[in-house]
């Protein structure tokens, strides 16, 4: 039921989708839907939590100190794992990216997204402080640009297409980090 609700929210918009639409799509009566789910808002909350919980797990893992792992390594891993979350939960992430704060559930989701952005920027800051990333671009901007690159996948990536999650992760981390890392990029100059 949640999968189809997410699809309908993405196709018709959350506000443009009724519980009647979902019932028709699933071949149930409206009362049967309400037997399993208290409200459309509940479905939205579950969908947004799916995406946000996956991203939170990524940052929890990337924030853990691992012997021998630098901040740069953890940041790079966070980007790779974020791509995997997006690919594995693409419909829910797509819905999350369309949230504008029109309800309490959406406001809460936006708050969680801002918290994730701040945590991601903190990883960037740590990599800058250890000397692995250039310092002339503010960490919050780097974070937004990296997330922007990952999030853009919802616009063109199709599950089962020619490019799989591993290829996407490799491409994004190579492009992003070879362009950001000191001494690792093709230009070889430091700022």
Helix content: over 70%
Number of folding domains? Answer: 2
CATH architecture title of the largest domain: Orthogonal Bundle
Average residue-wise pLDDT = 90
Apparent shape:
elongated
Q: Sheet with the most strands?
A: none
Give the strand content. under 5%
Q: Count the E strands.
A: 0
Instruction: List segments where confidence is low: pLDDT < 50 over at least 5 consecutive residues.
Output: 185-191
CATH names the topology of the largest domain as Tetracycline Repressor, domain 2
Q: What is the string of SSEs from the N terminus onward?
A: HHHHHHHHHH
Characterise the protein shown here.
The chain is mostly helical and 191 residues long. It has 2 domains: 1-37, Homeodomain-like (Arc Repressor Mutant, subunit A, Orthogonal Bundle); 41-180, Tetracycline Repressor, domain 2 (Orthogonal Bundle). Helix content is 71%, strand content 0%. It has helices spanning 2-12, 19-26, 30-36, 40-63, 71-88, 90-98, 104-129, 139-151, 153-156, 165-180. Helix 1 crosses helix 4 and helix 4 runs antiparallel to helix 5 (71-88). It is elongated and about 60 Å long.
Q: What key attributes describe this structure?
A:
191 residues, mainly alpha
List the helices and strands and how they pair.
Layout: H1 2-12, H2 19-26, H3 30-36, H4 40-63, H5 71-88, H6 90-98, H7 104-129, H8 139-151, H9 153-156, H10 165-180
């Amino acid at each position: 039921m949640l999968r189809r609700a997410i699809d309908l929210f993405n196709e018709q918009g959350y506000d443009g989708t009724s519980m009647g639409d979902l019932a028709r799509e699933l071949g149930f009566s409206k009362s049967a839907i309400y037997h399993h789910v208290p409200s459309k808002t509940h479905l939205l909350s579950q969908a947004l939590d799916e995406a946000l919980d996956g991203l939170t797990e990524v940052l929890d893992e990337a924030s853990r100190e691992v012997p021998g792992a630098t901040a740069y390594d953890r940041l790079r891993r966070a980007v790779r794992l974020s791509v995997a979350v997006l690919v594995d939960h693409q419909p829910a992430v797509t819905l999350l990216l369309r949230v504008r704060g029109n309800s309490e559930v959406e406001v809460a989701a936006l708050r969680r997204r801002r918290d994730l952005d701040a945590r991601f920027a903190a990883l960037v800051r740590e990599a800058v402080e250890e000397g692995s990333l250039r310092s002339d671009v503010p960490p919050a901007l780097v974070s937004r640009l990296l997330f922007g690159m990952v999030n853009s996948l919802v616009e063109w990536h199709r599950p089962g297409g020619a490019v799989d999650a591993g290829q996407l992760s490799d491409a994004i981390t190579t492009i992003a980090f070879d362009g950001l890392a000191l001494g690792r990029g093709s230009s070889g100059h430091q700022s």
